[in-house]
Design a protein that fits this description.
Blueprint: H1 3-34, H2 54-79, H3 84-113, H4 121-155
Helix pairs in contact: 1-2, 1-4, 2-3, 3-4
Length: about 160
C-alpha cells in the first residue's frame, strides 16, 4: 500500500465523517436554532452551545478534511494518477471549508454565541433562513467531495 493510497483512504473517511455530520446538523440541529429567531437562539447560547459543543467537533475536523484532500491530490500528482474525481473532490473540500471560515462561522457566532446581538428580529429571521439555505449548498459541495474521494479510493490500486 502506497502513501498515496493511505492518504486517499484517510481523505475518504474524513469526507464521510464530514458529510454525515453536515446532514445530521441540517436535519436535526439547524431546524432547532433557526425556527424562530431570536427566541430560538436563546437555548443555544452559552458554553457549550445548546448543551452540545459543536465547535469542539468542527474545529479540528474541518481543516483536516480540507488538508487531507489537498494532501491526497498532491500525492496523486506525484504518483501521476490524479483524475477528475479527485481534483473536483479536493476543490470542493477546500471551497466548503473556505466558505465556512468566510461566511458561516462569523454568522453562527452572531446567531448562537451572541444571541443575535442588537440585530432587529426580522433581519435575524431573514439571515437565519438564508444561512440555512446556503448551508444546503455547502453540504452539496461536501457531498461532491465525498463522492470524488470515495470513488478515487475504491478505484485506486496500490
Amino acid at each position: 500500500m502506497t502513501l498515496y493510497t493511505i492518504a486517499l483512504w484517510v481523505y475518504s473517511i474524513l469526507a464521510s465523517l464530514v458529510l454525515g455530520a453536515a446532514v445530521y446538523e441540517n436535519l436535526v440541529v439547524h431546524p432547532a436554532w433557526s425556527r424562530q429567531p431570536p427566541e430560538s437562539f436563546v437555548s443555544f447560547v452559552g458554553e457549550p452551545l445548546g448543551r452540545m459543543d459543536i465547535a469542539a467537533f468542527w474545529k479540528p475536523v474541518a481543516p483536516l478534511f480540507a488538508l487531507s484532500g489537498v494532501a491526497a491530490l498532491a500525492l496523486a500528482f506525484r504518483a501521476g494518477t490524479q483524475g477528475a474525481p479527485l481534483i473536483t473532490s479536493s476543490t470542493c473540500a477546500v471551497l466548503a471549508v473556505a466558505w465556512t471560515l468566510i461566511y458561516f462561522r462569523p454568522m453562527i457566532d452572531l446567531f448562537l454565541e451572541k444571541a443575535g446581538g442588537n440585530t432587529p428580529a426580522e433581519r435575524l429571521r431573514s439571515q437565519a433562513r438564508r444561512w440555512v439555505r446556503l448551508n444546503w449548498l455547502r453540504t452539496a459541495l461536501v457531498a461532491v467531495a465525498w463522492w470524488g474521494a470515495t470513488f478515487a479510493a475504491f478505484t485506486t490500486h496500490g
